[in-house]
Amino acid sequence: MTPVDNAALPTLPQLRKATGIAIIAAAAMLVAFVLPAEYGIDVTGIGKLLQIKKLGADSAEAPLSPALPATAAAVAPEVTLVKSRMPFNESEMSLILQPNQGGEIKALMRQGEHFVYTWSAEGGKVTVDMHGERPNAGKEFTRYWKDKQQAGDQGSFVAPFDGIHGWFWRNHSDKPVTIKVKVSGFFEKLYVPS
């Protein structure tokens, strides 16, 4: 074993000084280069001078929300807040469809209003058509989607225009099916059209 030459090892004050210099250098690199490149935050102006800010511009076009820390904004940079003048509403309805019978449940809504929904078909599967109708449109409607052999669905919906928006179900089985709908959000009323 070779003896250790204590004169070649750094002293405790030298280690402290080197560690302090390393921390200061790391902080300077973070502020001058990493923040402008990764998050578009250019506190010193060096990022703009060296055009480093452009590296982060593609991934962070929108300014960070002050309500979110930088780490949360990096995970979910796009935040959408939709406010409504319509009071919050919750409603549940059910509809019994006999064999080969169809039925509808609709929500009266204004353009831009939205709701979260869930519906289920108890006793069998159904064909479903979600669509909307403008006021005084007669038999014209806008279909959002249609599917066969469904036992339920859930999601959110934003009304593209003023009018009624909702579902039409048809029971193609030989047994009654009960449709249960729950809607929460911003709509005037949920109802079964006559």
From TrEMBL:
Keywords: Membrane, Transmembrane, Transmembrane helix. The chain crosses the membrane at residues 20-41. The keyword Transmembrane helix applies. The keyword Membrane applies. This is Transmembrane anchor protein. It comes from Collimonas rhizosphaerae.
